[in-house]
Amino acid sequence: MSAKGKFPVWILFPLVAFLALAGLSYQMLGRDQDALPSALIDRPVPEFDLPSLREGAPNFATASLKGQGVRLVNIWASWCGPCRIEHPALMELAEMGVPIDSINYKDKRENARGFLAELGDPFAQVGADIKGRAGIEWGVYGVPETFVITDDGEIAYKHVGPIQNADLETRILPALRAAGWTPPEG
């Protein structure tokens, strides 16, 4: 207590903050932490037109995703640790015949090219989103994020975070199949 007998209220602020966080944590128990809302599901992919990460290759744009069959669009960066963890799963998907395009997010071209040279390049097209504007249009929370795109250019599914462990079998492949993808024969 202070000299005048009043209780200093500011002492309660840490307790109130702790109780608020504890209440929020309790409220989140039992929820699917991967279920982040996306207003883009069942809607056309956003309008974008990005220069290719590859020298001399055409731009990667919205039109590139329409009428090309079911595919993935992966948003990644060389500076992203979880992107490195996810990369073997993308390589596996590409080996299975899943077409994968990508948007390299807020990255330096030389770093992104080095990442693909080191780990392998599973991507049919790679757009360079240097300023991050396309990522905003796609509703990206953070990299990596992966989208299942239908043949008519609509977003059928969004996976937030790295594809790992059982995600291929329990989330990605079922979403691809539901969108109409079938593995190539042979």
Automatic annotation (TrEMBL):
GO terms for cellular component: outer membrane-bounded periplasmic space
Subcellular location per UniProt equals: Cell envelope
The record's section on PROSITE patterns has: THIOREDOXIN_1, THIOREDOXIN_2
Q: Name one GO biological process term.
A: cytochrome complex assembly
| Keywords from the named record | Cytochrome c-type biogenesis, Disulfide bond, Redox-active center
Instruction: Tell me the GO molecular function terms.
Output: disulfide oxidoreductase activity
Q: Where exactly are the transmembrane stretches of this chain? A: none
Lineage, top-rank taxon, reads Bacteria
Q: Which Pfam families match?
A: Redoxin
Instruction: Identify the main location.
Output: other
Q: Which protein family is it in?
A: Belongs to the thioredoxin family. DsbE subfamily.
The name this protein goes by in its record: Cytochrome c biogenesis protein CcmG, thiol:disulfide interchange protein DsbE
Q: Which organism is it from?
A: Albimonas donghaensis
